[in-house]
Amino acid sequence: MLYLLAFNGLMLLLAVGVGRGLVSLRFIDGFITGLHSTIGIRTPTPDLLRRIVIVWIVSIAVIVDALFGLLRWVI
Fold first, then answer.
1. Domain assignments of the chain as residue spans, ordered by start
2. Which residues lie below 8 Å from residue 28, measured CB to CB, with a gap of 6+?
């Protein structure tokens, strides 16, 4: 449970850092461009990049929380 709290705290800090501009867009753009190229979809415009990264961060946190909940429920 402590690992889940630490993970959620880290994801929250990352989302706040991206939202406030503390994390550079060049660093983020490389990850997003690579991911979208792998999937085969268009890359977002620079003005939408921060919002898209925050959506990705929240999605990852929700998925990990749900998987952890299912794991705790089964065991």
1. 2-74
2. 18, 49, 50, 53
